[in-house]
Amino acid sequence: MDRLGGSVGVSLLATFFQVSELSYAATLVSTDSSLSLSSSQLGEAALHGFTETILLLTAAAFVGFLLAVLLRKDDASRVLSRGKP
Fold this sequence. Notes:
Elements: H1 2-31, H2 39-83
């Protein structure tokens, strides 16, 4: 089950990266008069996709950290209150 969750997560991140990169490349094409992109513009689009994906991962990790801290504090107080006579 862990492998299935991991593969779904990786595929979602790859899809997010691809959509972010393509939307940035489309923005570059619409602002440029030509219909093709140079290699530096393609690199810029890829860098934008990586940056957006890393920001998404950072935000998800931060939310997970906050939930872990909040839920652990609540569970610890419940366990301590059950242990008292």
